[in-house]
Write a structure and sequence with these properties.
Layout: E1 21-24, H1 29-37, E2 46-51, E3 54-59, E4 62-66, H2 74-86, E5 90-95, E6 103-110, H3 114-117, E7 124-126, E8 131-132, E9 144-145, H4 156-183, H5 188-199, H6 202-208, H7 213-229, H8 231-250
Antiparallel strand pairs: 1-6, 2-3, 3-4, 5-6, 5-7, 8-9
Helix pairs in contact: 1-2, 4-5, 5-7
Length: 267
């Protein structure tokens, strides 16, 4: 009998060579199936195909329709579906050190080899099927529940919308914050866009009691003005802008902001 491989190390950058199936945001579903198939025994072929707008996985002579949502959550809809399909012969584990990153490392292990592999190392935890690990850690109650083969996810549409609002709000805030660092000004249009995005987040709605986005924009402006006025922050912002200006100079671009003229110069 072939000796099973050791448990892979935490946050191993290699995929197959390191013993992991690595899934990343943007992966295609058929690539995930191929990654899982690498770790199955020859007598357990695993394949997939697209057929009439359906994504179908074939295992053990049976076809399974994966309930894709045509969103970024399809990665874990596929992963959970595969774990469900294989659960009679294989178990799936997650490297907890990669949860919350832009990639997650998964281990696919034959049940018959688990005793021979030795104790499960602390960085590996059993996959909780039906959750999107890119949205959070299910163990902490922070992950979005997703459907998978044979199982619906009540409230998935609402949870998907809430997560989308959270992502949009985060991106909008990063945009306005970077803009303030590079220009030295809080751009009103970007601030309003961030406030509007944040006002759609359930957590913000609950915290602010449904106040309008204009109020949120005012709160954000005050917070950012106070933060930018802090001596350490102001010094860091100046250093970042100076560094950016040096780079722009090399490419023939004007500085981010020109030095102020004395009040008595009008030309």
């Amino acid at each position: 009998m072939t000796t099973p491989p050791d448990w892979p190390a935490a946050n191993d950058v290699e995929a197959v060579e390191g013993g992991y199936v690595t899934v990343e945001i943007g992966n295609e579903e058929d690539g995930i199936v191929s990654g899982f198939a690498e770790f199955l025994a020859p007598q357990h072929p695993l394949t997939s195909r697209a057929d009439d707008d359906q994504f179908i996985v074939t295992y053990g002579g049976r076809d399974y329709v994966v309930p894709l949502s045509y969103s970024t959550h399809d990665i874990y809809i596929t992963v959970s579906s595969l774990a469900e399909i294989l659960r009679g012969e294989y178990a799936v584990f997650v490297d907890r050190t990669t949860v919350g990153e832009s990639f997650n490392n998964l281990v696919v292990a034959a049940l018959a080899t688990l005793d021979q592999r030795g104790p499960l190392p602390p960085h590996l935890v059993p996959l909780q099927v039906g959750f999107d690990y890119f949205t959070g850690d299910p163990a902490a109650g922070a992950a979005l529940a997703v459907p998978y083969v044979g199982h619906a996810a009540p409230g998935f549409a609402e949870g998907q919308a809430a997560h989308a609002a959270k992502v949009e709000g985060g991106r909008a805030m990063i945009d306005v914050m970077l803009g303030s660092v590079f220009t030295g000004k809080i751009e009103d249009a970007k601030l309003k866009a961030a406030a509007s995005a944040l006002s759609n987040m359930p957590e913000v709605k609950a915290e602010l009691g449904g106040r309008p986005s204009a109020d949120i924009a005012d709160e954000l402006r005050k917070f950012m003005q106070q933060a930018l006025a802090e001596p350490d922050v102001a010094k860091s912002v100046t250093e970042v802008r100076q560094a950016m200006d040096e780079v722009r100079k090399l490419t023939g671009q004007p500085p981010l902001s020109r030095p102020r003229k004395p009040w008595w110069k009008f030309w």
